[in-house]
Design brief:
Layout (H helix, E strand, L loop, with lengths): L12 H31 L15 H12 L8 H29 L7 H35 L9 H4 L3
Helix pairs in contact: 1-3, 3-4
Length: 165
């Protein structure tokens, strides 16, 4: 449900959480290799355009190099932490969006079908929901970046051990 409509059937809290967690799990699993490549580019100190000094130059060269040096499993480094982050973030955001939209709809009912009013309402509720999700997921994001950014030898071996570091 996008937006609050008191006359329509609403999803239960459990359905919202299951749907958002499932969608997050699938998309994170499929896109994890690109996230690893992105983080490698972000952590590289040398500029990408410096072909002699930088390790990673472009997308395809980076994919080949990671595969050659570390194997196919390297593309899923930090995957568990990333799954925790993705599922927590998206579930928190969808749940908060539904609840904030419902509360806002009860306090300030949108009686018009004005696209502008709905856009403003969704902008406000989306901003609040995203803020709640970011605050709830920041620790998992730090862990994910730590796992993905490490090379060999691995410094971080276990998600649960490094939660308390």
């Amino acid at each position: 449900m996008v937006g609050y409509d008191p006359d329509k059937k609403n999803l239960t809290n459990k359905q919202i959480l299951i749907a958002s967690a499932t969608a997050s799990f699938i998309s994170r699993f499929l896109l994890q290799p690109l996230d690893v490549v992105k983080i490698r580019f972000q952590l590289q100190i040398e500029p990408i355009r410096d072909l002699k000094g930088s390790k990673y130059h472009n997308l395809f060269q980076t994919i080949r190099l990671i595969h050659h040096e570390e194997g196919i499993r390297a593309f899923w480094k930090g995957h568990i932490a990333a799954q925790v982050l993705s599922m927590t973030y998206n579930s928190a955001q969808m749940y908060a969006f539904e609840k904030v939209t419902k509360q806002l709809g009860e306090v300030f009912p949108i009686t018009t079908s004005s696209p502008t009013a709905k856009t403003i309402t969704h902008f406000i509720t989306g901003s609040i929901a995203a803020s709640i999700a970011i605050v709830s997921c920041q620790p998992a994001d730090v862990l994910r970046t730590r796992f993905v950014g490490q090379g060999e030898p691995k410094v971080c071996q276990n998600l649960f051990f490094h939660v308390f570091l």
